[in-house]
Amino acid sequence: MGFHFQRCFSTCFLLAFCILSQSLTKGTLGFACNWGTITTHSLPPQILVKLMRDNGINKVKLFEAEPMALKALGNSGIQVMVGIPNNLLDSIGSNVDAAIAWVDQNVSTFISKNGVDIRYVAVGNEAFLKTYNGRFVQSTFPAIKNIQAALVKAGLGRQVKVTTPLNADVYQSDTGLPSGGNFRPDIQNQMMSIIKFLSQSNAPLTFNIYPFLSLDADPNFPKEFAFFDGSASPLVDGSISYTNVFDANFDTLISALEKNGFGSMNVIIGEVGWPTDGNSNANIKSAQRFNQGLVNRIVKKQGTPKRPTPPEIYMFSLLDEDLKSIDPGPFERHWGIFNFDGSMKYPLNLGGGKSLVGAKGVRYLTKQWCVVSTQANVMDPSFAQSVSKACTYADCTSLAPGSSCSGLDTKGNASYAFNMYYQTLDQRKDSCNFSGLSVITNIDPSPSQGRCHFEIMIDTGKHETKSTSSFAAPKFGFEYIMVMLVSSFTIINLFLFI
C-alpha cells in the first residue's frame, strides 16, 4: 500500500473515550464508554449517569476511583471498570498491604455500601508506552499480582477481574502485515508474564487502538484506511484483505498472541474513538463518520477476520476534557462524543430506531461573554500579554491551526481567549479585566458561519446547591496551574495574534 504498517500503531498519551460493547442487557444491545474527569467544570455525576442510561451505555471505564462518580453509578445497572493510575504502581507493586488497602477502599466499599457493579480493576494505563522510557515496566506485573491477591482476599476473585490497559505500541509487525505481529522485544518477557497470569485468572487483556493517531502521525497514511466504510484500497495479507486499520491493527495483536501460544486469549478494546477539534483531521465530519462506522459494527456484532466474534469495545470518550495535557496535540481535549456539558456534537444512529440524545437538567452561567473592546488597539503592548495570560489559565485549543476557530482574525482570537478565561473563572467580576482591552456583552460573539463557538460554562455552584453529590466547584490549585502553564506555551505558539 506504499506505507509502513507499523506507523498504524501510533502512541496515545493520557487519553479518555466513550465505548461500545457487544454485550446484551435485557435483550438490548449495550454500549460502553470511558468517563474522564480532567476538567475545570464537571457535570454532576447523576446527570452523566442518566446520560449514559438514556443512550444505552451499560458499561463504563473510569481512569481512577473517583468517589462521587462511583457513588452515582451505584444501583444504576451500569457495569464498571475502575482504574489505578500509573503513579500508584510502584507502591502497590512493592507492597501487598497497599493493594489490599486500595481494594478495600475503592472496590469492596463501593460494592457493599453503594451497590456499584464493579467488574474490572484496570491496573495502570498504557504503562509500557514507549514515551515513558520504561518507567513502569518493572512495577506493572507485581501490581497486577498484588491487586489480584487483594481481590481474592476480599472474596471478590470471581466477581471482579484484573486487567491492564496497554497501548497498541506494545506489539509490532516486522513484515508490515498483520500476520507478522509479535510483541516488542524489549518488553517480551513482561508481556508474557502478564498474559500467562491473566489467562490463569480467566481475566482479559485490554488494548487501546487509535486509527486517528495513525493518520495524524503519518502524512503518507491513506486517509480512507482509517475509516470503516470500505472505500480504502485493501491491505492484502495472504488470503485476507484488510480495508481498515482497526481490523489490521487488532489482528496484528491476535497474531502476536497466537505466536506465543495464547491465540484464544480474551481481549477488550479499552479505548477507540475520534476527536472533533484541535487540528484539521480532528473535526465533526470525520468523528461522526468514524464513530457511526464503529457503532454499526457493534450493532451487527461484527468482528475482525481473525476474530469474527467482536471484542468488548469501550469508546473514547464520553465528554471533552479541558484540563488534559496537550503534549500529544491540541486534539487531546476534544475526544468526547458529547461536548463538555453533555450536549450533542453530532447525531449517531444507535440501531433499533434509537438515536443519540444529550444531557438533561444542565445549568449554565449567565448568557454573557467577555470580548475585545471595539476601541482596543492590537498594537497595544499589553494586547499580546493579555491573550497570553488568558490562554495560560484557559483552554485555547480551538484556536490551533486547522481547528474550529482557526479562521478568526486577531481581535477574534483575543476575544475567544478572553472569553474562555472569563468562563473558566466562573464569570467573576474581575475576570474580564485585560488592561482596558475587554468588555462584557450579552450578544453571542460566535461567528454565524462555521463551527467556532464561544462557550458559556456550566454553573457548578448552582448544581451544588441542588445536588449534594455533584463534583466540587473548580479549584485553581498548583496542579491545575502547572497543567495550564505548560499547555499555554504550546497553544500560544500555534497561531499568531498580531
Describe, in plain words, how this protein is organized in 3D.
- The protein is of the alpha/beta class.
- It has 2 domains: 5-355, TIM Barrel, CATH 3.20.20.80; 369-492, Methane Monooxygenase Hydroxylase, Chain G, domain 1, CATH 1.20.58.
- 32% of the residues lie in helices and 16% in strands.
- The chain has 13 helices and 18 strands.
- The chain has helices at 45-54, 67-73, 89-94, 96-114, 137-153, 188-200, 211-217, 245-259, 284-299, 381-393, 410-424, 460-466, 478-492, and strands spanning 20-25, 28-35, 57-62, 79-84, 117-123, 161-163, 165-167, 171-173, 181-183, 205-208, 235-237, 240-242, 267-272, 312-315, 349-351, 354-355, 369-372, 438-441.
- The strands form 6 sheets. A 6-stranded mixed β-sheet has the order 1-2-3-4-5-6, covered by helices on one side. A 4-stranded parallel β-sheet has the order 7-10-13-14, with no helix packed on it. Strands 8-9 form a two-stranded antiparallel ribbon.
- Helix 9 (284-299) links the parallel strand 13 and strand 14 (312-315).
- Helix 4 (96-114) crosses helix 5, helix 5 (137-153) runs parallel beside helix 6 and helix 10 packs across helix 11 (410-424).
- It is globular, with a radius of gyration of 23 Å.
